[in-house]
Design a protein that fits this description.
Length: about 350
């Protein structure tokens, strides 16, 4: 049975109601009191990616699956699974913040949940302007068999439906809770160890997995701006360190967005859109920046040594330590972070010697 009422989350209900009230007059929907009461075709006539993201989020909060499917078909010329016809149960699960995907995801349970592949997770990608889906498909081609198995695993990709503007991806759904904040670093370290054990001989210059993801480039730009505002004298030395790490440090496969929301208790690791071959310390830095509420640089160093630098990977642990601290700064200053300004400033002084200015 399909859910046709609003989700039982008050904050999402309130937000959906507000977005609906604030926007319906702009789209000449003022006669309707809810999205499903809009005149036929009005809700699915999105003229831009931004509109599609906006309205699809609203209808997801109301669990309106038929309208959602119509939106995808009208905008992207791609047909999603017809939930009302084939699903025993369907619901919107969670929400994201990616720029190249719709930030509303669906869980679809087919008529016989006992059969393999009957629990599906649906995610919608934009075809142009991003290489996220290309990265996921390249990852599956090169490492799918290795990543689909084990105590830590990537949910198996089952189907890709390509349209003119959109692509819909279905993978195996793994119902499970996220790891706790206390577990995040240790579980993240286990993911990193598995990825670093994979062969790097498939790294070929020019492939999508060898290119930096836009998330890193954006975070690096914001970090440079932050340094220029805080300690401009340190910027040249920081840029030199960036070149050294990116040009000469050993590279390994990294998840690219590793934090506790993407690691489940079941062992499933979600959201591989930013994956690639990155310099050592990339994923550890993400985990330190987003999952460890460290109160000092010493605490960051201790955690890097304890969980990552001691890995038996045949690489000098000093690469892991400095690389991890560098990426902690980049993702700490350049993205949403659990680290305070004072810790970030001390971290800059640590990795760029003599960057501290008088009076600081």
């Amino acid at each position: 049975m399909l859910v046709t009422d609003k989700l039982r989350f008050p904050f999402r209900q309130a937000l959906a109601d507000k977005l609906w009230r604030d926007s319906k007059h702009v789209y000449r929907l003022s006669g309707a009191t809810a999205p499903w009461e809009a005149r036929s075709g009005a809700m699915d006539a999105c003229h831009s990616w931004e509109e599609l993201k906006y309205w699809s989020y609203i209808v997801s909060c109301y669990e309106q699956h038929a309208i959602y499917e119509q939106m995808l078909s009208a905008f992207g010329s791609v047909e999603a699974l017809d939930a009302s016809r084939i699903a025993a149960k369907v619901k919107f699960v969670g929400s994201g913040s990616g720029g190249s995907t719709l930030n509303s995801y669906r869980s679809i349970v087919l008529d016989d949940p006992s059969k393999p592949g009957s629990w599906l997770f649906e995610k919608v990608y934009r075809c142009e302007g991003s290489d996220d889906l290309e990265r996921v498909l390249a990852l599956v081609r090169q490492f799918g068999d290795r990543l689909y198995t084990g105590d830590i695993f990537m949910p198996r990709l089952l189907d890709v439906r390509n349209g003119r503007e959109l692509a819909i991806v279905y993978s195996a759904f793994t119902p499970s809770a996220r790891v706790s904040a206390r577990q995040a670093v240790a579980r993240g370290a286990a993911v990193v160890q598995k990825l670093m054990a994979l062969p790097t001989d498939s790294l070929v210059s020019g492939t999508v997995l060898s290119e930096p993801h836009s998330n890193y480039l954006q975070a690096l730009t914001k970090t440079r701006d932050w340094i220029a505002g805080k300690r401009p004298a340190a910027l040249t030395a920081f840029d030199n360190l960036s070149r050294k790490i990116n040009d000469s440090y050993p590279r390994y496969l990294a998840h690219g967005d590793l934090h506790r929301k993407n690691i489940l208790v079941s062992g499933a690791v979600l959201d591989w859109d930013s994956c690639g071959f990155y310099p050592i310390g990339y994923d550890p830095g993400l985990i330190m920046a987003r999952g460890l509420n460290a109160e000092s640089v010493e605490e960051l160093e201790h955690s890097l040594v304890k969980y990552f630098a001691a890995m038996n990977i045949g690489t000098d642990a000093r690469f892991m330590l400095l690389g991890g601290l560098y990426f902690t700064l980049v993702f700490g200053a350049g993205k949403k972070s659990a680290l305070s300004e004072s810790v970030l400033e001390s971290l800059l002084t640590k990795i760029v010697p003599n960057s501290e200015v008088k009076g600081h």
